[in-house]
Automatic annotation (TrEMBL):
Cell membrane in keyword set: no
Family: Belongs to the acetyltransferase family. RimJ subfamily.
Keywords: Acyltransferase, Transferase
Boundaries of every N-acetyltransferase domain copy: 17-179
SUPFAM superfamilies given in the database record: Acyl-CoA N-acyltransferases (Nat)
Example GO molecular function: acyltransferase activity, transferring groups other than amino-acyl groups
The protein, known as: RimJ/RimL family protein N-acetyltransferase
């Protein structure tokens, strides 16, 4: 365990959102978010849909696993809560952590009603800062489907650079293998 991570922030503030660690009882709100975005998420986050979107109990179990993994320093999963509505509107996580480098991968989505409003840009910028300055990671990566242009633009907007393509790296729920595009961001190039 990395003792310096015992006192990191569990809530990050942006202009329009609070990005915070999940708490017991957040499963109901998380299930609602997943259910409202089911069609999009089935293609982009099938593992998440399989684990958490069957019913509210599974969503609550997923939330509690996220809490445990945070405490065990295995994954830092957070809900994105909108300041005005106080509703859960997104999800972001630093996962696939390799403490030997140290590096991690970012995964994220926002409610379909809030796409292209700049909310996820401010959320990711804040999470990148958290990952570099508090988690003390030296590198972050984002992997997107090659046709997910919105996510690729978002990655570039917050400072990531394209590193290459990963051929037949991801299996869609239909069984088809597709390519991913990998983006990276090194802490040495991060300027607050």
């Amino acid at each position: 365990m990395r003792h310096q991570l015992f006192n990191i922030d569990t809530a990050l503030i942006t202009d329009r959102c609070v990005v915070r660690r999940f708490r017991e009882g957040d499963g109901k709100a998380f299930y609602k978010l997943l259910d409202n975005n089911r069609d999009y998420l089935l293609d982009h986050f099938p593992y998440l849909m399989a684990e958490a979107a069957k019913n509210r109990k599974d969503a609550e179990s997923f939330v509690r696993e996220c809490i445990a993994e945070w405490l065990l320093q295995r994954r830092y999963a957070m809900g994105v809560w909108h300041n005005e509505t106080t509703e859960l509107v997104g999800f972001v996580q630093v996962f696939n952590l390799d403490w030997g480098v140290p590096m991690g991968e970012l995964g994220y989505f926002i409610d379909k009603e809030l796409i292209r409003q700049g909310i996820m840009t401010e959320v990711l910028a804040r999470v990148v800062r958290f990952a570099f300055l508090q988690l003390e990671l030296d590198k972050l990566v984002i992997k997107t489907l090659v046709d997910n242009y919105a996510s690729q633009r978002l990655a570039r907007r917050v400072g990531f650079s394209r590193e290459g393509d990963l051929r037949q790296e991801y299996r869609l729920p239909s069984g088809v293998l597709v390519d991913l595009m990998r983006f990276g961001f090194a802490r040495e190039t991060y300027g607050e």
